[in-house]
Amino acid sequence: MIEMNDTEALVTLNVPPDLEEQIVDWLLAREDGTGFTSFPVYGHSTSHAGLSPTEQVTGRQRRQQFQIQIRADNVNAFIDNVRQSFGAAGIHYWVLPLTLGGHLAAPT
To answer: Is pTM, for the whole model, over 0.90?
Structure first.
């Protein structure tokens, strides 16, 4: 039987591509880090503020997305630390409760 988890959260950060390496280094240097996943994505919005003319025409903006699994009681401190470390860098985030997660291993 699998027990559901209510003490973990999944934090998603959508960052400008030019911040990718800085975010990777920052996440790897964190002592509370448990690993993360990153991949290129496109952001879409009806707001054109901050979009280049090409992005306005295509209706999308390149972003790099990071997903970080952390303890739910550390989420606010984590977001505050992102804000302190990267300020007004155009990072968009959201947090979801993580009800289940783990590693699958081959049967023994």
So the answer is: no
